[in-house]
């Protein structure tokens, strides 16, 4: 029987040698580099070569553990890891208590939202090896999850993993590094860190001082590594698609844009601020608009018809990312469409059984390996979240993908779709610059 042992890349080997000696370290390498296999290799080394008694806690976004089961699958996939026993702490409170009281294992996997609960219901100090997967989830020093974990981490080994550690700006790095060194390198106080490396303008906006990024990287270079993967990926083709409203509907859209109100048929929507107006316009571009939290009205089906025709004519399976709930409902009416919301859905996608996979970038942005089921992505709409775009596209464009990846962005002409595209894809315009640029008043 042929052995199935993982072969680490040169980047993985180099980082492995570093973290063998480092008890606290941040691995901020590109998505798809194989950070999961890297950490399992470290566990294997410590358990079987160093003969250390390891009780590991892996903290991750809920969907990575429950839906994609990234760590579980990686452990079971390779012969040099599949002896490692693990438990997933999930379910209601009673079920979780039963799991942690009855089951013993080398690895405990838990959602980052349940760390505080775990500490209250077990001896947290018994975990001597902590992995924080997708550590950008800890980018805010104000969140409960950061405060809990920073209080609980003492002298354990701790490793942070993220392909997007600074999804918004470099202020996001402070709380992550604090988990490693308690403020030794970037200050024990966030506001002191901010005032050191950033300056304030326009009352509440902050920008980096000249050379600050290089200074931050220099300060943390002994406990963090940044860089791209040495894995050779196929080319990726970005394909913006511009569509047009009919003149009548463009007039209605312009009314919302200029007057903060739009009326048509049975529909009527209003906006009370510039930001709300922009959000309503983005909804109209996708074909509908919310009139309340759970109610919406139909406006246009231009994007939907394009997608339906595209799916009919392409030979590849298509993964479409939707922004709004009404997008999902409408797209699922297309023949061959299926929502991807469970591990079974992900497996079926990778086996080529789903012609049109319908997926949310909000719930599925982390950890999913979906490179085997297709190589075509369509963004049905756009929203202000760079992290979602970067992480979501990497579900398909990652190690193991054998084809060129095509990414289509559906946009309506003469709308705000183009502004968002420039911000997220071309990175030429910030959200704040947009709000200042349009200078619209009710």
What's this, in brief?
This protein has 442 residues and is of the alpha/beta class. It has helices at residues 10-19, 35-48, 62-66, 70-77, 93-102, 115-121, 144-152, 173-181, 190-197, 212-220, 247-259, 274-286, 302-313, 325-331, 343-350, 386-393, 417-424, 431-438, and strands spanning 24-29, 56-60, 86-89, 107-111, 129-133, 157-161, 198-201, 205-208, 224-227, 236-243, 261-264, 267-270, 288-290, 296-298, 318-321, 337-339, 356-359, 376-379, 405-412.
Structural features:
442 residues, alpha/beta, seven-stranded parallel beta sheet, six-stranded parallel beta sheet, 18 helices, 20% strand
Can you walk through the features of this model?
This protein has 442 residues and is α/β, with parallel strands linked by helices. Helix 1 packs across helix 2. It is built from 18 helices and 19 strands. The chain has helices spanning 10-19, 35-48, 62-66, 70-77, 93-102, 115-121, 144-152, 173-181, 190-197, 212-220, 247-259, 274-286, 302-313, 325-331, 343-350, 386-393, 417-424, 431-438, and strands at residues 24-29, 56-60, 86-89, 107-111, 129-133, 157-161, 198-201, 205-208, 224-227, 236-243, 261-264, 267-270, 288-290, 296-298, 318-321, 337-339, 356-359, 376-379, 405-412. The N and C termini lie far apart (72 Å). The strands form five sheets. The chain has a seven-stranded parallel beta sheet with strand order 3-4-2-5-6-1-9. 38% of the residues lie in helices and 20% in strands. Helix 5 links the parallel strand 3 (86-89) and strand 4 (107-111).
């Amino acid at each position: 029987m042929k052995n199935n042992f993982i072969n680490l890349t040169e980047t993985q080997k180099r980082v492995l040698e570093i973290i063998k000696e480092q008890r606290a370290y941040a691995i901020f390498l590109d998505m798809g580099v194989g950070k999961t296999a890297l950490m399992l290799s470290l566990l294997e080394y410590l358990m079987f070569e160093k003969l250390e008694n390891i009780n590991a806690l892996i903290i991750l976004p809920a969907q990575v553990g429950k839906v994609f089961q990234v760590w579980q699958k990686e452990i079971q996939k390779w012969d040099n890891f599949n002896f490692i026993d693990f438990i997933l702490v999930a379910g209601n409170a009673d079920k979780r208590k039963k799991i942690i009281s009855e089951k013993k294992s080398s690895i405990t996997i838990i959602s980052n939202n349940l760390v505080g609960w775990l500490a209250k219901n077990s001896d947290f100090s018994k975990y001597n090896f902590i992995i924080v997967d997708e550590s950008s989830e800890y980018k805010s020093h104000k969140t409960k999850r950061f405060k809990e974990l920073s209080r609980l981490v003492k002298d354990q080994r701790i490793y942070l993993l993220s392909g997007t550690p600074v999804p918004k700006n470099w202020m996001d790095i402070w709380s992550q590094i604090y988990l490693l060194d308690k403020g030794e390198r970037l200050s024990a106080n966030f506001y002191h860190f901010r005032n050191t490396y950033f300056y304030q303008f326009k009352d509440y906006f902050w920008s980096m001082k000249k050379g600050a990024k290089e200074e931050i990287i220099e300060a943390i270079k002994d406990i963090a590594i940044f860089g791209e993967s040495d894995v050779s990926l196929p080319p990726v083709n970005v394909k913006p698609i511009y569509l047009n409203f009919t003149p009548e509907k463009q007039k209605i859209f312009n009314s919302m844009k200029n007057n903060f109100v739009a009326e048509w048929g049975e529909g009527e929507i209003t906006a009370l601020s510039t930001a709300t107006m922009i959000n309503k316009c983005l909804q109209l571009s996708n074909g509908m608009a919310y009139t309340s939290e759970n109610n919406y009205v139909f406006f246009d089906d231009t994007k939907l018809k394009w997608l339906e025709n595209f799916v009919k004519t392409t030979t590849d399976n298509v993964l479409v990312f939707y922004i709004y709930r009404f997008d999902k409902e409408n797209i699922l009416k297309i023949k061959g469409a299926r929502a991807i919301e469970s591990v079974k859905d992900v497996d079926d996608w990778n086996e080529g059984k789903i012609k049109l996979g319908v997926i949310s970038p909000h719930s599925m942005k982390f950890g999913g390996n979906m490179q085997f089921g297709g190589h075509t992505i369509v963004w049905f709409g756009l929203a202000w979240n760079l992290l979602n775009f970067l992480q979501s596209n990497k579900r398909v464009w990652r190690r193991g993908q054998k084809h060129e990846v095509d990414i289509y962005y559906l946009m309506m002409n003469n709308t705000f779709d183009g502004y968002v595209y420039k911000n997220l894809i071309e990175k030429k315009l910030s959200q704040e610059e947009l709000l200042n640029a349009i200078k619209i008043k009710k």
